[in-house]
Specification:
This protein is of the alpha+beta class. It has helices at residues 10-17, 31-34, 38-45, 143-146, 179-191, 214-226, 279-287, 336-351, 363-366, 368-372, 381-394, 415-441, and strands at 23-30, 51-57, 61-67, 76-79, 84-89, 98-101, 107-111, 121-123, 131-133, 153-163, 202-207, 245-252, 258-265, 294-295, 321-327, 356-361, 401-403. A 7-stranded mixed beta sheet has the order 14-12-13-11-15-16-17, with helices on both faces. Helix 8 links the parallel strand 15 and strand 16. The protein is elongated, with a radius of gyration of 24 Å.
């Protein structure tokens, strides 16, 4: 597994969210990926706050339950007056979801060692891809409307339900969102010079899971300086990396002058064995041994005897800053092995004295309030929490975590999107400056 994605369509998610108000669903468990086992469900879903269980069957029903309280495996029956069961069909014949609540003061779920257990509906029943149905126990419903009497599941997902209506009273970073600031940032980037005599361009390596937006970030920055949306690096959402070569991209402004930064793209990280970017290849890239357009071999990292291996390395060939690219909407879905791989990469970069930042992409997909107005990016409690979590997982300070929105489906540039992208480039150049400062001190 490299990418964990929701089975819900955007339309289906909107129908479900209409039952909560202004909320966002964050996928934390997917049975087809994590396993149809109660223990795996609890490992992912305990102490997550309000959650929504969503099940799918071959009859086209999407059904499940919402609870506002934590799973904690207390062994107790729990009263939750906000809890409800729901159902609708994939073909959307019925515009409104079928919604069932328990009576006032009645139990809503059993907080035990089972799968999601709502009395009358028990998912992952006996560690299988099925649901136990017994209308009248906690909830009373029509089984035909609920699941069409089809109790075999083709998928079961659990989402954390996050309140998105709250904004911080004051943004936790101050950003100017006017055209003058956009021009100031572009001018600063264009005029930047490395404080090292043999280096004209800072080299920044983009590293992250498949589909996080590495190549899209380059395309977006490239577009800002070209004056319109352009695509040069391949992008997509394939389950395995579309980037199979090491690529170095020099960006030129509208006048054709190269910018003082080179963005280096590589194959995506995957947590499986012999899959994705290897730690040895990562090290070779950092040291400057890997030439542009080198074709990666996932089963065999680059060796000194590999054709193309650069033995004579100048400072301009090395990496001066590493940017870890992470999809904001999938922070909770990073597998343990992926986090371990990030930690290994961090240790290697630290040993070589290379500063690092995190690019949090797709912020508009992570928070509806940010999708409505990008200026809310530093006021969203939801995003701030995600960024703090990523900083803690990777062992970086919050100042090194930078939210961005890439261009993906737009035809025209947006000034607010540009300012976020340009701020990210400025931070990368500042990190590269600290790398060069250390060289001069040595």
């Amino acid at each position: 597994m490299s990418v964990v994605t929701s089975r819900l369509t955007r339309g289906q998610e909107r129908r479900i969210c209409s039952m909560f108000g202004h909320a966002r669903l964050s996928l934390i468990y997917k049975a087809s990926i994590h396993g149809y086992y109660n223990a795996y469900f609890h490992n992912k879903c305990n102490q997550q706050g309000p959650t929504l269980t969503v099940a799918y069957n071959n009859s086209g029903f999407i059904f499940g339950a919402y609870i506002s309280k934590d799973y904690a495996q207390t062994g107790q029956n729990i009263v939750d007056e906000k809890a409800f069961l729901f159902s609708f069909d994939e073909k959307e014949h019925n515009p409104e979801p079928y919604r069932v609540t328990s009576g006032t003061g009645q139990y809503s779920f059993t907080d035990a060692n089972t799968g999601p257990n709502f009395g009358s509906l028990v998912f992952l029943y006996n560690d299988t891809d099925s649901v136990y149905s017994n209308p009248g126990n906690f909830f009373n419903f029509d089984p035909i409307k609920m699941h069409g009497n089809d109790l075999q599941l083709i998928e079961c997902e659990v989402y954390r339900v996050e309140e998105c209506s709250a904004l911080l009273s004051k943004p936790w970073r101050n950003v100017q969102w006017n055209p003058e600031r956009r021009k100031f940032l572009m001018d600063n980037i264009t005029s930047w010079k490395a404080c090292h005599i043999s280096v004209n361009q800072a080299r920044v390596l983009l590293v992250g899971p498949v589909g996080a937006g590495k190549s899209s970030f380059f395309n977006s920055v490239y577009s800002v300086f070209k004056g319109h949306v352009k695509i040069q690096a391949n992008t997509g959402t394939a389950g395995t990396s579309l980037t199979t070569q090491f690529r170095t991209y020099s960006i030129r402004n509208c006048s054709g002058k190269p910018l003082p930064i080179v963005l280096c793209d590589t194959m995506g990280m995957e947590h499986g064995l012999n899959a994705g970017l290897d730690i040895d290849d990562f090290t070779s890239i950092l040291k400057g041994n890997v030439p542009d357009r080198y074709q990666f071999n996932p089963s065999m990292p680059m060796q000194e005897t590999t054709p193309g291996f650069r033995k004579s390395v100048a400072e301009k060939d090395k990496i001066h800053c590493v940017a870890y690219v992470i999809d904001s909407s999938k922070v909770k879905l990073l597998p343990d092995r992926m986090i371990e791989k990030f930690a290994a990469f961090r240790r290697k970069a630290n040993l070589l004295g290379i500063p690092q930042v995190v690019l949090m992409t797709k912020v508009d997909e992570a928070c509806p309030l940010v999708a409505e107005d990008l200026k809310n990016v530093y006021s969203s409690k939801n995003l701030e929490g995600m960024m703090r979590e990523v900083a803690a997982q990777l062992g970086l300070s919050m100042s090194a975590v930078i939210p961005v929105k890439n261009y993906s489906q737009e035809f025209e540039l947006d000034p607010l999107t540009d300012i976020l992208l340009l701020n990210a480039v400025i931070q990368m150049l500042r990190m590269a400056e600290s790398y060069f400062d250390d060289l001069t001190q040595d």
